Amino acid sequence: MSLLKRIGRSRPVQEAAGFLLAAYLGLVRRTNRFVVEPADAYDRIGPHMPVIAAMWHGQHFMIHFAKRKQDPAASLVSRSGDGELNAIALRHLGVRAIRGSGDRGRGRLREKGGAQALRAMLKALEAGEMVVMTADVPKVARRAGEGIVTLARLSGRPIVPVAVVTSRRHDFDSWDKASIGLPFGRGAMVLGDPIMVPRDLDAEGLEALRSRVETGLDAVHERAYALVGARDPGADLRVEGAAVASGRAAGSS
Q1: What whole-number distance in Å separates Cα of residue 153 and Cα of residue 203?
Q2: From CA 167, how far away is CA 179, in angstroms rounded?
Q3: If pLDDT is split at 50, 70 and 90, which confidence band does 217 have?
Q4: Which range is least confidently modeled, 73-77, 108-112, 113-117, 235-239?
Q5: Other CB atoms within 10 A of residue 162 CB
Q6: Helix, strand or coil for residue 23?
Q7: Whole-prediction pTM value?
Q8: For residue 165, what is the enclosing H or E element?
Q9: Distance (Å, rounded) from C-alpha 80 to C-alpha 139?
Q10: Which of 19, 36, 116, 137 has a beta carbon 3.0–4.6 Å from 102's, enabling a disulfide?
Q11: What is the pLDDT of residue 4?
């Protein structure tokens, strides 16, 4: 490992970077005029707390804007180097990090700390903490995995699709089309209807609820971007991913 990489991964540097990221996001939050839709979203969702707040990958920078101050929250954060930075920033923003990764939609919750993270999230929900997590998993953008539905089934807590976007933002050229807001613009927070997941769910029911989470997240993101006069840069990622997968399958046959 090069000296520069070692310095970048040192605890003092990561702590400083996480603090600066949190401070920047606080500036974005204060300087954008946000509208919440529906207007009575918190009145509707309040009785269901604690909920599982679902987001798409790439939208994680600003999702915490939608959290009310009185609601304790924990967020699933990967064990990667970038995840460490995000975890530090979240701590400064009043959100506890639970470290672990998703299952790539294949039900392998033990991979990358998934099983341990699942237990931690169940414990958090039982203690009254809202849990925030991405519905899709790394490198499989905009396709909900089974993990979030499994969490809802085991905990008995509903899934709420959430999107937070701003009119002024930087869109990264990444696999998940990540976005981060810029100061001094307009913003939108859109919360979908709670999705209840029965505990006695069979395989067919699990797939139906997984698909419903996808539809709900697509809807809130499309609406949030429309409210700020833009189009979701990740809107076509699922179609593009399916085309790539199909091409690979054809090439190997």
Answers
A1: 12
A2: 11
A3: very high
A4: 108-112
A5: 27
A6: helix
A7: 0.89
A8: strand 159-166
A9: 14
A10: 137
A11: 57
Answer yes or no: is pLDDT of 27 > 80.
Answer: yes
Residue at token pair 């790394």: 138
The pLDDT assigned to 48 comes to 96
Residue partners of 68: CB distance under 8 A and separation at least 6? 42
Q: In which band, very low, low, confident or very high, does the pLDDT at 87 lie, cut at 50, 70 and 90?
A: very high
What does the angle CA 160 – CA 188 – CA 169 come to, to the nearest 5 degrees?
115
Picking from 95, 133, 94, the residue whose alpha carbon sits closest to that of residue 114 is 133
Beta bridge partners of 189: 36, 164
- Write out the two tokens for 171: 């869109």
**Longest Cα–Cα distance in the chain:** 55
Report the C-alpha gap between 63 and 183 in whole angstroms: 16
Determine the residue type at 53. Answer: A
**Where does residue 113 rank: exposed (0-12), middle (13-18), buried (19+ CB within 10 A)?**
middle
User: What six digits make up the tokens of 207?
Assistant: 């797939």
**Amino acid occupying residue 121:** M
- Whether residue 93 contacts residue 25, with contact meaning beta carbons closer than 8 Å, is answered with yes
Helices (H) and strands (E) in the chain, counts: 8, 9
Q: Tell me which residue has tokens 């991913």.
A: 241
Residue type, 26: G
User: Quick check: 169 and 182 in contact, CB under 8 A?
Assistant: yes
CA-wise closest residue to 18 among 67, 90, 73, 79: 90
Sign of the dihedral defined by the CA atoms of residues 228, 229, 232, 233, in that order: negative
Beta bridge partners of 162: 191
